[in-house]
């Protein structure tokens, strides 16, 4: 089971410096580098021509990829189902451009390094939109356990060892799982929620300095 959470930028530090602080803590614990990872998300909105009645709000669909699952593509609706398709789904989306339009400016991704520590896999990613770094995402997996609620306390205890007071609360997807098996789609839902949260943070106007 996995937890995906945003970590705030340390006071007086940049995004990159905060990422380095986190990875240094992991290395001091004894975690081993396992190469790069990337999770990306493109936003599609319902094309105006298909909307019918005026004033109707379009649906957003998120098409996501995860380097852990190189042959899969994930399509998610907010509060809706998650479709897992093969990598050709991207080509299908091009053909469906009369129905779904790609909001290219909204492409967002988390990219960074994977670390292995005992039975835990940790990914510390810099979240970027276009050329700019917008935040930090940390994904932690406890590899031996597939029942989310059985290992939350273990996950939390381990996260506290390098995230300190920024250890997240239990992910909402865990609440809906109860005793069922955790799946890759649950990870993608957590990334979708985190990316949307970061997008919204960027839309809040910053008050001018008096």
Task: Provide a compact summary of the structure.
This protein has 210 residues and is α+β, with helices and mostly antiparallel strands. The protein has two domains: 122 residues, TATA-Binding Protein (2-Layer Sandwich); 59 residues.
Helix content: 25-40%
Q: How many extended strands? A: 9
**Nearest-integer average pLDDT:** 88
CATH fold category name of the largest domain: TATA-Binding Protein
Largest sheet: 9 strands, antiparallel
* N→C terminal distance: 47 Å
Q: Give helix and strand order, one letter per element, not per position.
A: EHEEEEHEEEEHHH
What's the overall geometry? globular
Radius of gyration: 18 Å
Protein described:
GO terms for molecular function: transcription coactivator activity. InterPro entries: Mediator_Med20. Component of the Mediator complex. The protein is of the alpha+beta class and 210 residues long. 30% of the residues lie in helices and 35% in strands. It is built from 5 helices and 9 strands; from the N terminus they run βαββββαββββααα. Strands 1, 2, 3, 4, 5, 6, 7, 8 and 9 form a 9-stranded antiparallel β-sheet that branches. The longest helix has 20 residues, at 184-203. The protein is globular and about 55 Å long. It starts with a strand and ends in a 7-residue tail after the last helix. The model is unreliable at 205-210 (pLDDT under 50).
């Amino acid at each position: 089971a996995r937890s995906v959470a945003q970590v705030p930028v340390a006071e007086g530090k940049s995004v990159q410096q905060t990422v380095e602080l986190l990875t240094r803590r992991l290395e001091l614990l004894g975690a081993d580098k396992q190469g790069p990872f990337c999770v990306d998300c493109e936003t599609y909105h319902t094309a105006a021509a298909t909307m019918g009645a005026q004033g109707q709000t379009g649906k957003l669909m998120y098409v996501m990829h995860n380097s852990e699952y190189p042959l899969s593509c994930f399509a998610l609706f907010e509060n809706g189902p998650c479709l897992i398709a093969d990598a050709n789904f991207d080509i299908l989306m091009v053909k469906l451009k009369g129905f779904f339009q790609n909001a290219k400016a909204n492409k967002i991704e988390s990219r960074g390094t994977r670390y292995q520590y005992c039975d835990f896999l940790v990914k510390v990613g810099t979240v970027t939109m276009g050329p700019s770094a917008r935040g930090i995402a940390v994904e932690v997996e406890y590899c031996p356990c597939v029942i989310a609620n059985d290992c939350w306390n273990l996950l939390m205890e381990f996260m506290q060892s390098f995230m300190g007071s920024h250890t997240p609360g239990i992910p909402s997807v865990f609440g809906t799982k109860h005793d069922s098996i955790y799946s890759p789609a649950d990870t993608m839902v957590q990334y979708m929620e985190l990316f949307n949260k970061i997008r919204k943070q960027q839309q809040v106007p910053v008050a001018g300095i008096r």
